[in-house]
Fold:
Amino acid sequence: MASGNPPSAPASPARALRLWLAGWWTLLMFGARLLVLLGSKSSWRHSQRRLMLHLFYLATQPMLLSFCLGSAIIALVIIRIVLATALSYGLSRYALDVLVRTLVLELIPLSAALFAALRYTLPAAEGLRVSRLQGLHKAQLARGLDPMRDQVLPQALAGILSSWTLTLLSAALTLLLTYLSVYGFSTWGLDGFVRGVGQVFGPVIVLIFLLKTLLLSLAVAIIPMLPAPREGRPGADIGRLARLLSVILLIELLSLLGNYY
Amino acid sequence: MENQQNPLEPSPVAQLDLKARLLLAALLLLIAAAAAFVLYARGAFERTQTLVLVADNAEGVVVGMDLSFAGFPIGRVNRIELSDEGNARIIVYVPLKDARWLRQSSVFTMESGLVGAPRIRAYSGILTDPPLPDGAVRKVLSGDLAAEIPRLVSGLRDVLTNVTAMTADDAPLNEALRNVQATTDKLKGPRGALGALLGDDKDAAKLITALDRANTLLARLDGLVLKTDGLVAKADTQVFGEQGLLRDGQASLRQLNALLAEARMSLKKVDAVLIDAQGIASNTRSATADLGTLRAEVESSLRKVEQLVNEVNRRWPFARDTEIKLP
Structure:
């Protein structure tokens, strides 16, 4: 992890660039350390597995109802708008395609990741920083324990899994709402609906969707946990949030490029 | 270490371990269900047969596109490739349960609309034909609405040019309309249709004079017909009256009938004479046959006499030629 406090005087552009690059390098190293710990056998000992499981539940359960409800309401509004617009232009046969692409492929993974960040990973990272500033991590290290393995990794994993859960659950709910909005409470359109959804989910689209969901969940789980060089000083939280948003924007841009170019 | 309490862990939850396991199981189930749904929606679990559609141009065709029959999707494009002949080969997978709609006489079309991707459709007119075999190769009939538009605009431009030419001031159509106007003016004039037909008032006057003369002629003809009627009555009396030609003719006919009866009798007599003559002729024919026999006998006797003379001559040469002729 990067250490040392920057001078309070305004930095020159070269120094700012160096600091900026050093920040990204620190992030990469931090992520790599977490991945190494993820593959380590000691990370999966019984007590750790139990802790991970508990944290996953504690991270996900409070968000489930509120996120599903919120995403369902927003999805219904968007579905109605798209259906009414498509119908008025005589393009209703493209409505399903547009809805699946807009909601399931683009909006839901993004909103689920942001929701997980706001409701779980950012507060959890704040707690970690507090304990670090209180010197609890140094005490653990002195006792031969690794706070990265025993605290950061389980919480990051809980953030990743909660993001996946929200994405999948919300996608399923949105598909259900789309079917009900297009065909009503009957089963006659099930074949056409499944076929239409299948046409959207081509192999490349599925791969991009999986990669996007994975990368977004990694971003919201890891970036908030990153110890900033100016930890405890004003602007450190804003800088972390800006980095998180820029990474999310980059992932979204790459996924759009992959899907539509 | 094992019992270390996480500083961020909130207040304990009842049955936390069980609930956490259930949530994880639900997540894994959700992932598996999503994967299965996508595979099912992509038709991975369907038994299919292959249909190869050959098109000149596969622009706009994408993998996963439907092949529809009567508005229902019955197959989907699985692969698009370029053949050695330079044609696009569209490989379509048709589920076996829907393959019954495709027959050997089925026709396949690809229609490109103004909006959206082209549509591949199948038409099966005769559903009693043999079913389409697996791997069948069929030509696609293409119809491109977007390609038709420039042609349509070009045609429309020609039509507009023609209409402009037709409605020009010196156009034949305008001339014709002006002539019609002049004709209708003449029709409304004092000479009416005659004036319009003949064009000249003098000619119309001549025609009217000719009509008057024809009327006079007809009146004369009427008188002539009356006279002819009297003549016919007289002829009737002379021909069909008591002393008329018809009665004389009838008497003459009766006499002619009697004459004919007599003639018939005479002919019968002649017929009998002819029969007799025929008998005489047959007798003569038999006599002629006897004469033949007699002649044969005479000829035979003569030959015998000749042979006898020859024999006598051979034995006694009365008239032997003694002169010796030298070659």
Summary: The longest helix of chain A spans residues 46-88. Residues 83 and 113 of chain A are 27 Å apart (CA to CA). Residues 1-7 of chain A have pLDDT under 50 and may be disordered.
